[in-house]
Design brief:
It is built from two helices and eight strands; from the N terminus they run E-H-E-E-E-E-H-E-E-E. It has helices spanning about 15-30, 75-85; strands at about 5-15, 30-35, 40-45, 50-55, 65-70, 95, 100-105, 110-115.
Length: about 120
């Protein structure tokens, strides 16, 4: 049995990370804790993380909407367990020393992302 550690973040796919970051800063008064150019902006909000993603940071086929990311203790083993259950999971993607990620869809088609350190 694999254990989910925590909800890592919830993110929105956006067309323009800089524009969306400015919008959330202005509209909600939140300041990003981490920005990776035009690809990703991450905000810490009351102990949770809200993020904006674009381009290669957004799972394939995702044009808009929210993605929940679960952090797992062993990503490779967790993905193997999902695949053993017949769940199609994307390839792992290394994020330049920030960890690895992959994704799958629930029965309704919602994207669920997994993250491992």
């Amino acid at each position: 049995m694999f254990v989910l550690i925590k909800v890592k973040n919830v993110s929105y796919a956006v067309d323009d990370v800089h524009e969306a970051t400015a919008f959330y800063q202005d509209a909600l008064g939140i300041t990003p804790q981490f920005v990776d150019g035009a690809r990703w902006a991450q905000f810490r909000v009351d102990g949770s993380t809200f993020a904006l993603s674009a381009g290669e940071e957004t799972p394939d086929g995702m044009e808009a909407g929210a993605v929940i990311t679960f952090e797992v203790d062993n990503l490779v083993d967790f993905v193997r367990g999902l695949r053993d259950k017949g769940i199609a999971v994307s390839e792992l993607r290394e994020m330049n020393g920030h960890g690895s990620t992959c994704w799958f869809r629930d029965p309704t088609g919602n994207v669920v992302q997994l993250y491992g350190r």
